């Protein structure tokens, strides 16, 4: 016998299901009047420092179909690479956004400021990125990934450096489609499968 | 910059299989390549915080929040309560907990739910609260009905309430479902069965809690939730190569 490890076990995940919108973005789902407005409508307020950008994309299932029922959340640092809640963070950046795939087209849109590079432990520096979490019917545990930007210097990013098959790095890079606009598609399975994270 | 502590790695074996043949939709919505695992970074170790001041007085009362108190929802009145802890056993105070559920007949107020059980004009189906200093939360609601769903020819969801919990770090983010003690449909449900280890699935089943119920008013069910913890050590920051 040994001493007992005094550690609890995380509660198991279950799928968010097809009706996740009722709980997380009820007004969007047509359940109006319970809350004044949905949580996480925008990660920024007017006057947030930095370049305002718009990221558009779709989430494709293993058959190539753009999912109409997914919900996404994003979390990011401000333009100086400081997370909301940390000392010196831009008070006009909440950093958090909830958004859903359009029920007709499957396309999502995220309007935010481009984050700065982020300092980690032991001198690590992460290239500008936005963390993304995806839930939907058929996704049994939320999928995490990151949006990096093709027009930033990603060469020293410690996470991208861990991707052995170098062409897969491209699955995490938003493509510039115009001034301040980007395209970021997510593929859950199969050819061009997005790199999903376990951090 | 504020230093943050690393999260304990997620124990994937306690979670559902992402690809589970009896749950058909999961087959095309699960990655086929391995996840990229590494130590958490500030992106996962920080997260959004929400203040008690964002809550309305009825936000955690699904019996009356859809009508803003004008009329009550139909169904068996229940109180659902518990604590949010992390893997180290510490309470997670001041964290947002959101729930959603079907009405007493097993019908959701959602454009995609076409089950012929009727909508309850006094029931919306969502609620939220923020844990107190001790990680405690509670909701008043009605017990949701079981309902059939399109999967195999005759699949039914057991009675359940969906839970969404934030914690204090984006890497703690969790969505799960609470089931009810004694529901025979739990054993037949392919979504419940995605959690392969039965002892882990049992942790999603809330016991009847008579001591916290109230005579002539409501039954209580207790549901505790555990989020990922943070590694506690004095040895995090070290010079390169040491």
Q: Can you give a write-up of this model?
A:
The complex is a heterodimer of chains A (199) and B (242). Chain A has one domain (20-187): Aromatic compound dioxygenase (Protocatechuate 3,4-Dioxygenase, subunit A), CATH 2.60.130. In chain A, β7 and β8 (143-149) form a beta hairpin. Chain A has helices spanning 20-24, 26-29; strands at 52-60, 71-76, 96-100, 107-113, 118-119, 125-126, 130-135, 143-149, 173-178, 181-183, 186-187, 197-198. Chain A has two helices and twelve strands; from the N terminus they run ααββββββββββββ. The mean pLDDT of chain A is 97. Chain A is globular and about 45 Å long. In chain A, strands 1, 2, 3, 4, 7, 8, 9, 10 and 11 form a nine-stranded mixed beta sheet that branches. By secondary structure, chain B is mainly beta. Chain B has a domain at 45-144 and 161-177 and 208-227: Aromatic compound dioxygenase (Protocatechuate 3,4-Dioxygenase, subunit A, Sandwich), CATH 2.60.130.10. In chain B, 3% of the residues lie in helices and 24% in strands. In chain B, the strands form three sheets. Chain B has a five-stranded mixed beta sheet with strand order 4-3-8-9-10, with no helix packed on it. In chain B, strands 2, 5, 11 and 12 form a four-stranded mixed beta sheet that branches. In chain B, strands 6-7 form a two-stranded antiparallel sheet. In chain B, β9, α2 and β10 form a beta-alpha-beta unit. β12 (197-198) of chain A pairs parallel with β1 (36-37) of chain B.
């Amino acid at each position: 016998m040994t001493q007992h490890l005094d550690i609890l076990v995380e509660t198991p995940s279950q799928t968010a299901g097809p009706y996740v919108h009722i709980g997380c973005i009820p007004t969007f789902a047509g359940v109006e009047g319970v809350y004044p407005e949905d949580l996480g409508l925008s990660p920024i307020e007017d006057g947030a420092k930095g370049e305002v950008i718009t990221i558009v994309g779709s989430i494709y299932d293993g058959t190539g179909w753009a999912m109409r029922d997914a919900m996404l959340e994003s979390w990011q640092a401000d333009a100086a690479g400081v997370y909301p809640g940390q000392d010196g963070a831009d008070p006009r950046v909440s950093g958090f956004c909830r958004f859903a795939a359009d029920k007709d087209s499957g396309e999502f849109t995220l309007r935010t400021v481009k984050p700065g590079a982020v300092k980690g432990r032991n001198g690590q520096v992460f290239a500008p990125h936005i963390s993304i979490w995806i839930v939907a019917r058929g996704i049994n545990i939320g999928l995490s990934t990151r949006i990096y930007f093709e027009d930033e210097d990603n060469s020293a990013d410690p996470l991208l450096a861990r991707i052995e098959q170098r062409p897969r790095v491209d699955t995490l890079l938003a493509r510039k489609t115009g001034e301040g606009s980007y395209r970021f598609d997510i593929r859950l399975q199969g050819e061009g499968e997005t790199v999903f994270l376990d951090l | 910059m504020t230093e943050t502590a690393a999260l304990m790695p997620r124990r994937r074996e306690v979670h559902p299989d992402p690809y589970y043949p009896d749950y058909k939709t999961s087959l095309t919505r699960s990655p086929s390549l391995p996840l990229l695992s590494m130590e958490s970074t500030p992106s996962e170790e920080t997260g959004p915080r929400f203040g008690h001041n964002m809550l309305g007085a009825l936000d955690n009362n699904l019996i009356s929040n859809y009508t803003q108190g004008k009329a009550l929802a139909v169904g068996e009145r229940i109180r659902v309560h518990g604590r949010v802890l992390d893997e180290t056993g510490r309470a997670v105070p001041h964290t947002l907990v959101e729930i959603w559920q079907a009405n007493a007949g097993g019908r959701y107020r959602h454009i995609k739910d076409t089950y012929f059980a009727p909508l309850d004009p006094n029931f919306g189906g969502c609620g939220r609260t923020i844990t107190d200093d001790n990680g405690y939360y509670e909701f008043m609601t009605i017990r949701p009905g079981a309902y059939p769903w399109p999967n195999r020819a005759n699949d039914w969801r057991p009675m359940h309430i969906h839970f969404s919990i934030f914690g204090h770090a984006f890497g703690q983010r969790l969505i799960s479902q609470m089931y009810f003690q004694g529901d025979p449909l739990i054993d037949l449900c392919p979504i419940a069965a995605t959690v392969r280890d039965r002892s882990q699935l049992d942790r999603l089943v809330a016991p009847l809690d008579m001591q916290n119920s109230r005579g002539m008013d409501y039954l209580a069910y207790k549901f505790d939730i555990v989020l990922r913890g943070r590694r506690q050590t004095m040895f995090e920051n070290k010079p390169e190569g040491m």
